[in-house]
């Protein structure tokens, strides 16, 4: 158990863009206690008011504090269940804090593996809808369309196929290509690069570098530590919802791999 969080020190020479201050995120999960059975039997118990559901609290993020500065590309690492994706969702404003807070200078944009695109629509149509949802007008969307298609590097003709025919890798590439078509104040990437091949990861790294220069900050969650080390200038290691280490990529990743045996 980690009781002490790393001390947060403000760098007066840099411009803060995200401040996470004593953040706690708690999920409340309802279940049927010790009762087991099918969904149908559970529904009947609810209807009959039998076996009142019990609530369980899951403390996913525990007192996390740090400051991200303009130009930062921050990797978030940790084992499954350490709170990485929960932290990104909290920064994006999708999860309310139980205690503490998140303050951002600008609008965070979360790009996840399960980012919402319309699976029954073609990739082409999703590009248009995705760009409009990000605030681009039709003229800007048309200008960026060919660039998005080229970056996604789909199989010939697939841009006109419904997205439910895409592989997971193709869908992830298209989502990243759409999200990277505009400048973001804070870009949050959750495992979006995990299914890409080496060529796509090189292009993604170059695009993230470009976004860092033109925008605010980039946060990246990925199990592939090589991607984190090559892409980020800083790494935060989460363990059981707490920050165990925050620093330069090589030092943090080395300590993490030694501790976790990865």
From TrEMBL:
Keywords: ATP-binding, Nucleotide-binding, Transport. The keyword Protease does not apply. InterPro entries: AAA+_ATPase, ABC_transporter-like_ATP-bd, ABC_transpr_TagH-like, Bact_Polysacc_Export_ATP-bd, P-loop_NTPase. PROSITE patterns: ABC_TRANSPORTER_2. SMART domains: AAA. Pfam families: ABC_tran. It comes from the Bacteria. Gene3D superfamilies: P-loop containing nucleotide triphosphate hydrolases. One of its GO terms (molecular function) is ATP binding. Belongs to the ABC transporter superfamily. This is ABC transporter ATP-binding protein. It comes from Actinomadura yumaensis.
